[in-house]
Amino acid sequence: MQLTLEFGGGLELLCDSVKIHNVNVEPQAEGKKLTMKHLLSWVRTNLIKERPEMFMKGDTVRPGVLVLVNDCDWELSGQLETVLEEKDAVVFISTLHGG
Amino acid sequence: MDSNGVAETPADIRREIASLEKVKAEIDHRISALRVRLTSYGSVNGNEVANSSAPRPEQTLLSGQLSPDMIYRYSRHLLLPSFGVEAQANLLKCSVLVIGAGGLGSPALLYLAACGIGCVGIVDHDVVELNNLHRQIIHTEAYIGRSKVESAAAACRAINSSVQIVEHREAFRTSNALEIVRKYDIVVDATDNVPSRYMISDCCVVLGKPLISGAALGLEGQLTVYNYKGGPCYRCLFPTPPPTTACQRCADSGVLGVVPGVIGCLQALEAIKVAGAVGEPLSGRMLLLDALSARIRVVKIRGRSPQCEACGENAKLTEEQFCNFDYEKFTQSPLSTSPLKLHLLPSEARITSKEYNERNLKGEAHVLVDVRPSHHYKIISLPKSMNIPLASLEARLSEVSAALAREEGHKKDDDNQSASLYVICRRGNDSQRAVQYLHKMGFASAKDIIGGLESWAHDVDPSFPTY
Ligand SMILES: [Zn+2]
């Protein structure tokens, strides 16, 4: 399944400073749907090059990271249970505090 | 000038400028105060009734309470069909508190004063520094070393003497927060640290004030409106604070000046929309700015969370709870922007920059490793230092061994001591982490230089640039 993943707010530093990744991710098993939970572990294994604790805590993202599925907070679509579709855009963005 | 045959020094000129600036600021302040008094007579341009020989007809001020001068000053607002007299009159009746007169606060304050917000409050405890001026555009060189609030207030009064500017020259803390915020209708969060963001959001929840929140770092910015008409608060979005390692500061990571400028302008815009009661404020949505790729994205965020510990259904935060909450402990970060000072090493594993200087002058055989990131090293470095960024130290240990071996080779024969290994960084935190690691990897004699290059500039070579 084709997905566009984007990292921002400094999270791109964890994946070789590349912000946008066009990736192909398959569901965990044949006939199953691809969920955010599976995508997160896929990202951790395949894209995160350093300090994984800056991206995840337990089986979800660390505090201070907003996850957007098609420009919408994943809280509104079921968080880890959000089901992804072909060509979805997922954004991981660390909240900023500077000024 | 060289009037008495005594050579004038730059220090003399600076002193004279400073003293004249001070007098000028006092005069400006008195003029502003007089102008405000004059406004209460109906005009500031010398057209008031007292000077006019013809008796002035009774004026009916339509829908807004705008004086002739205000009509002229704000005419371009009044001409906007979707803004008009009503929204302008709303601005004039409104008060806005801007917390932080830095990169975000600078443009926000300039626009809020210019647009005719009736009363603008400014909170900050900091002083203006030269390395602020690339982004904190409200301040000028003349104010270096003086209070940011004083400087910002003078700039706002210079633009619009008819608005009231209130100076709060103090750090924003739980002890004064309620008392300050209570007097205002809208709050603009233009601070630069995590505990302040939680504290300001909670304070706005307790007092029921809408909060215009902006942030910027590097080449990115974020903006949203919290606690507005049933919308989410900061804690609804971020119930748990981020790990301290994820909280970068502009002073460490850098920031392109115009980026907080853009976000600060947008904060002014949102404040004007809320104050004027026009448009759709950015509540329940967040604007994300990526300056490098020239992309602005507006995303939908969650609404108010029923489980929120500040604004949720079961947990209405009280004033007393707010005052007793320890925001520094909660976020594990200090409210003041003073940089972190680690103490990881025993004193025998550290030397001062002065001591290092003496040993170096004596010709001691040694290797100096600078563990800052390479883009820092490019700004300025000590001669003879080698750059191995902390992140790549593990992979480049062999370079340290090779450099030590080279130094041993150069040593005088009567010297039976092996070459020393010193580690330096910007402020003396990463160098301690590096020395800890080097000790573990068998470089038992590695020592860190206390306080890093900042202490070198302070204690050894005042001409060494700091950044
Ligand atoms: Zn809340």
From TrEMBL, chain A:
GO cellular component: cytosol
The keyword tRNA processing is assigned to this record: yes
Pathway annotation: tRNA modification; 5-methoxycarbonylmethyl-2-thiouridine-tRNA biosynthesis
Record InterPro entries: Beta-grasp_dom_sf, Mopterin_synth/thiamin_S_b, Urm1
Keywords on record: Cytoplasm, Isopeptide bond, tRNA processing, Ubl conjugation pathway
GO terms of biological process kind: protein urmylation; tRNA thio-modification; tRNA wobble uridine modification
Alphabetized Gene3D superfamilies for the sequence: 3.10.20.30
Transmembrane helix listed as a keyword: no
Post-translational modifications: C-terminal thiocarboxylation occurs in 2 steps, it is first acyl-adenylated (-COAMP) via the hesA/moeB/thiF part of the MOCS3/UBA4 homolog, then thiocarboxylated (-COSH) via the rhodanese domain of the MOCS3/UBA4 homolog.
Residues bearing the modification 1-thioglycine: 99
A Pfam family it matches: Urm1
Compartments it resides in: Cytoplasm
Annotated crosslink Glycyl lysine isopeptide (Gly-Lys) (interchain with K-? in acceptor proteins) location: 99
Family indicated by similarity: Belongs to the URM1 family.
Purpose: Acts as a sulfur carrier required for 2-thiolation of mcm(5)S(2)U at tRNA wobble positions of cytosolic tRNA(Lys), tRNA(Glu) and tRNA(Gln). Serves as sulfur donor in tRNA 2-thiolation reaction by being thiocarboxylated (-COSH) at its C-terminus by MOCS3. The sulfur is then transferred to tRNA to form 2-thiolation of mcm(5)S(2)U. Also acts as a ubiquitin-like protein (UBL) that is covalently conjugated via an isopeptide bond to lysine residues of target proteins.
PANTHER family linked: RURM1 PROTEIN
Name of protein: Ubiquitin-related modifier 1 homolog
Gene that this sequence comes from: LOC105176537
Automatic annotation (TrEMBL), chain B:
UniProt GO cellular component terms: cytosol
Free-text remark on how the cofactor is bound: Binds 1 zinc ion per subunit.
Gene Ontology MF term list: ATP binding; metal ion binding; molybdopterin-synthase adenylyltransferase activity; molybdopterin-synthase sulfurtransferase activity; thiosulfate-cyanide sulfurtransferase activity; URM1 activating enzyme activity
Cofactor or coenzyme needed: Zn(2+)
Enzyme class: transferase
GO biological-process terms attached to the record: Mo-molybdopterin cofactor biosynthetic process; tRNA wobble position uridine thiolation
SUPFAM superfamilies: Activating enzymes of the ubiquitin-like proteins
Localization (cell): Cytoplasm, Cytosol
Pfam families named among the record's database cross-references: Rhodanese, ThiF
Binding site for ATP: 103, 124, 131-135, 148, 192-193
EC number: 2.7.7.80, 2.8.1.11
Catalytic activity, as annotated: [molybdopterin-synthase sulfur-carrier protein]-C-terminal Gly-Gly-AMP + S-sulfanyl-L-cysteinyl-[cysteine desulfurase] + AH2 = [molybdopterin-synthase sulfur-carrier protein]-C-terminal-Gly-aminoethanethioate + L-cysteinyl-[cysteine desulfurase] + A + AMP + 2 H(+); [molybdopterin-synthase sulfur-carrier protein]-C-terminal Gly-Gly + ATP + H(+) = [molybdopterin-synthase sulfur-carrier protein]-C-terminal Gly-Gly-AMP + diphosphate
Pathway linked to the protein: tRNA modification; 5-methoxycarbonylmethyl-2-thiouridine-tRNA biosynthesis; Cofactor biosynthesis; molybdopterin biosynthesis
Superkingdom, natural source: Eukaryota
Sequence similarity: In the N-terminal section; belongs to the HesA/MoeB/ThiF family. UBA4 subfamily.
Reported function: Plays a central role in 2-thiolation of mcm(5)S(2)U at tRNA wobble positions of cytosolic tRNA(Lys), tRNA(Glu) and tRNA(Gln). Also essential during biosynthesis of the molybdenum cofactor. Acts by mediating the C-terminal thiocarboxylation of sulfur carriers URM1 and MOCS2A. Its N-terminus first activates URM1 and MOCS2A as acyl-adenylates (-COAMP), then the persulfide sulfur on the catalytic cysteine is transferred to URM1 and MOCS2A to form thiocarboxylation (-COSH) of their C-terminus.
Protein name per Swiss-Prot or TrEMBL: Adenylyltransferase and sulfurtransferase MOCS3
